[in-house]
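Input/output pair, single chain:
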Amino acid sequence: MTNVTFLAIFLMLITAFNCYGQIAIPSQVARPITPIIEKLPGELSRIRETVKTPVDTTLANASSLLDKASDPLYALPDAITIKQSNGTAALKEIKTPDGFLAIEKEWVLVAKEADIKALSDPDIQVVEKHYLQAIGQWMYTLRITANLEKLSAIRDSLPAELQQQLTRNYVYLSQTSNPVDTSRRQMDSAPLLTSSSHSPSAELAKPDVKTCSLASRVGMIDTPIFESHEAFAHIDVTQKNFLSKPLTNNTVHGTAVAGILAQRLASNSLIFNASVFYERSQVSQGATLANLLEGLNYLAEQNVDAINMSLSGPENEVLRLALASIDKQDIQVIAAAGNNGPAAPAAYPAAYLSTIAVTAVDSEHQIYRWANQGSYIDFSAPGVSVETAHPTLRTSRESGTSMAAPIITACYACALRHRAHRGEALTSLIEASIDMGEEGRDAVFGYGLLP
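Output:
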């Protein structure tokens, strides 16, 4: 990046955007934005294609990244049995043949109501069904006891479209570091790959103003939030629980993510939280695909500006189709890039075309050593040892791409409120980002840093 280019971006950050438009308008309760036109502008598709253009520069050096990784790469946790508060088994996780977590014998079908007839079989039981208004389809949670050979035959007999809409009830995990793993915790602030010499200093890049001047409507998929915390005194928090069984959950992760949003949202902003996670351990939370779909449907019905998803899991056609449907309603999804290590495969939902993927940097603007890397990375934001709200302490310091994602969510929501035009809001984030690492967009920092 040339000095002239950097100076232009820096001046724009300070005087024009600062990640948040600073127009002196009195705060009001955030009402839903009415789209200027019914369909997305053509330029938004162009922006999306640019954002997701494959990045070869950093990926070509993947072997050098592995050479620098002195610690083992992150692996999925073992499957466990989740118990209800009374001690009885509620969910039994398994490791699927593709290496991901899922609920044993549970599958999800998203289809028209009449389509369920195609799965009429003694070995298939409908456990739950819900109509997803935002997606315009029925969601069926199925218990399938057939062996794999019979299940494969049943699936092959379905129309091609229905085959894509039937999937395992996969488990998605929150994306914060494991504080019990002390060796990993000590290294959270140690970079795996530093920014190159043309990057601005931490002091120079940091905007003067953190909060937005216009109230926003933001959705999040997470654990419950400890909403009586003082961090939320200036905003309104509405929550809905989507766990169908009385499972244990804690409020640490959701409170931390909401706390970061609250730091940057204007007074009278609204946070809608879909509580979908169950507690796997004190430091690990899981959410089933079925609960994710219900949560997304609820948030879309609230007409939010954006949805924060600080979680990741396997690629899944059912989830992709649901997110594409929400995208068509002018709701932007922002997701954590994943904490599986620089050589790990792409994490979802961050890697979907309709989603903005966010990675984490430390206070010196060096990449979080456990962050995923790849051509799907869009932006970077602070996510290492960041101070945020805690349900039992006043604040705590948390690390992970989970903590970086809400910063970009707040930035986007604010930009949308000032511009009321989705294409312009996305463009403003790109223009306001500070180039890091390889010159131009890269697979480590994306377009750059929004502090």
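The two ends are 18 Å apart (CA to CA). The chain has two domains: 3-69+174-432, 93-170.
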